[in-house]
Write a structure and sequence with these properties.
The chain is an alpha/beta fold. The chain has helices at residues 2-19, 36-42, 56-73, 98-110, 154-172, 199-202, 220-227, 229-252; strands spanning 25-30, 45-47, 53-55, 77-80, 115-122, 140-145, 175-176, 186-188, 193-196, 208-216. The chain has one domain (15-252): Zn-dependent exopeptidases (Aminopeptidase, 3-Layer(aba) Sandwich), CATH 3.40.630. The strands form two sheets. Strands 1, 4, 5, 6, 7, 8, 9 and 10 form an eight-stranded mixed β-sheet that branches. Strands 2-3 form a two-stranded antiparallel sheet. α5 (154-172) links the parallel β6 and β7 (175-176). The structure holds zinc ion.
Length: 253
């Protein structure tokens, strides 16, 4: 009897966890495109000291492909703006990237999501050392949301953003980026959440959103993690778990 009651509670807990995101539509946008060809257009890449290229567009896609099944397992309907190392719009490198941003927006809004997550990583370059590892960065996470405090999505996006930076900080054991005035056009709120007029923040006045800058991918120690396939996969799994926990927390409140 005892055993069957235990099994019943295990199944009940599993069922409750499985349903926690049911009925929620989430769009994940893996930022940039990846591949050396596109990374040279966007300048979103770093070179290791051995001249190995690490592109932001590949990191964001790898993260999205780990995050998406975690959210689906909890019942969410999940859409990705891209699932390959290709632009979302039908563009060529010489066309520039603005068409691709618009295509990401158009696709995302067409899904009428409760949540829009754009995934990114950041860099800080040392003078004359553009695109190379920087050993003076304190590793930290931050989130950008709309700058418009009157937007319907502002408060929810701020709450979600704070939860994301706190979860990332705790799971990856890194800091929260809270340098006021670092970006000329940004307002710092609490817990590393900045209001900023980016295409994929300002155009979601009614939809809860977060543009997540997971960590600095040219921080010298992080570069060592990212060139090691096992450590790279572990870092991205921790990040995906942190974001999943925040999303669950957000919808549970
Ligand atoms: Zn980015």
């Amino acid at each position: 009897m005892k055993i069957s009651i235990s099994i019943f509670f295990i199944l009940l807990c599993f069922q409750l966890r499985a349903e926690v995101l049911s009925g929620k539509t989430i769009v994940i946008d893996p930022g940039h495109i990846g591949t050396s060809e596109w990374a040279l257009v966007s300048k979103k890449y770093i070179l290791t000291d051995e001249d190995q290229m690490i592109t932001e567009g590949e990191l964001t896609l790898e993260l999205a492909l780990v995050l998406s099944p975690l959210l689906k397992e909890l019942g969410a309907e999940v859409f990705l703006t891209r699932s390959k190392l290709l632009p979302v719009a039908d563009i060529k490198p010489e066309d520039g990237l603005s068409g691709d941003l618009k295509a990401r927006y158009d696709y995302s809004i067409s899904k009428k999501p409760q949540l829009f997550l754009s995934l990114h990583f950041d860099t800080i370059y040392k003078k004359d050392r553009a695109h190379y590892p920087n050993d003076s960065i304190t590793q930290s996470a931050k989130v950008f949301i709309t700058k418009d405090e009157n937007a319907l999505s502002f408060e929810n996006s701020k709450e979600l953003g704070q939860s994301i930076t706190n979860e990332i900080s705790s799971k990856l054991e890194i800091g929260i980026d809270e340098r006021p005035g670092w970006w000329w056009d940004s307002d710092l709120h609490e817990d590393g959440v900045y209001g900023r007029e980016l295409y994929l923040t300002k155009n979601f006045p009614d939809t809860t959103h977060a543009l997540v800058e997971g960590f600095y991918y040219n921080q010298a120690q992080e570069v060592k993690n990212l060139v090691d396939p096992i450590k790279r996969s572990l870092r991205l799994k921790l990040l995906a778990t942190a974001i999943t926990n925040s999303v669950v927390q957000f919808f549970s409140d």
